[in-house]
Design a protein that fits this description.
By secondary structure, the chain is mainly β. The chain has 4 helices and 23 strands. The protein folds into 3 domains: 176 residues, no CATH class; 156 residues, no CATH class; 37 residues.
Length: 457
Amino acid sequence: MFRANVDSSLITVTDSLFCVQPSDNTSQSFPAQPQHPVLGDSYHFSLQKSPTVGPSRGFYMVDDVIQTYFPNSSVRGLLRQPSPGPAASAFCIDRNPAKFLRSVSLSCARMVTPQSCITDPSLSANSYFSDLHLVKIPKAEMAPVLDFLIPVTNLSVWPSPTLRNSSCINAVQKVKFVIFYTGRGELANAMVDVTLADVNQSQLLLQTHSVEFQLTKPIPTPAILNPAVGLKVGSPLIGRFLKEAMPLTSLGVSQSGTCSPDTTTRAPILFTHNIITGCTFSSPANDCSELRSQIYGILQGLATPDEIAMSSGSQPDWARVLTQECPFSLQETCESGCVLPHSLSIEVLWARLGPLDLPQNYILGARYLFQCQNFKCPLSSSLALTTRVTFADSTVYPEPPRGLPQPFWKFPFGFFTRGSAELDGHIIMNSSSTEKVTWSLMLLTVMSLTGLEFLCR
């Protein structure tokens, strides 16, 4: 073991002693263990000399000390959390560095005297945040940090401690640092909160120092707005009621067949789905206005929409909805009869738009039409209420860009002619001209034969 680590010439062995002389050769010595930075004596970071910081890294790791910087004095330091002294001592010592992701609350005591009340920075709230900045990521000792500073925000403005009678007014009792960090191990921001108290002179003050680390909530990514696209068959229709978008519904079907004012039982209106539903309505009401309001609530729901979505997507286009309600008179009574709606017809006009190979379905408009009738109240029998939803396709298909090819017929009347009514693209209408053309062709044929016979001789 000794031969592996120590030069044998440095070893001296006697009867009672075993000596090893120190070696001047430092090349074989082990690397020095990293030492904690030397911290100053006061908590307000007025370091007498710059501490030795660790290597530069793009993020903080667990138990890394938090680096600080004071721009006004160009002094680098470490964020420290006062803690009780060793053994049984409860007095505060200011050499305990705060460590990354270690949320700790420590309590210790300080002696308050007439002199320390004015001069001790640990009793003044301003010394815990004045000109204090945290370094966003660990940086080497000589590396510039001005572009990586996070200011410490004080949550309030606290007065300095003062002497009044026999008490120290506005002495620091609690200090809480809240440091926010990102998932990448970078410091995002920091804030400090201080609680003050009045302490009698020559009395111990119990201080509590807390450091809390909180993960910053990621900024929500703005939702990508889907462009407006055509409606799919069976997709629910969306209406806008006083600028609030809601699905359109129709009269629901109950098992008993009676009408219910419960809006949760209403069925959604689906694109291109023609439906008709009905129920029986009865009410003991003796007022026309009350009866009318009950029936409207069953047929249309809460209200009729002002607009209807022409397409799907997060930013659809909107089309106007026309509503035709029942006309009534303010002087109507139950004896004379009430004009009440008994049927609602919802008509939706739509069309296919776009190229023929990929058309998109768009709604062009809608209409709510109430059918009305005069009834006397109270109703002597149940009233049948119906709702009909119909979709009308108004697509206009264009003509094909090219028509089908048509044959061009020629009817020759002679075997040697090109046509009885055509010669070199010119149309000859009268028969005499046709005879002249025919004789000319015959004469040309005879001359050709004669010429051939003359050449043969």
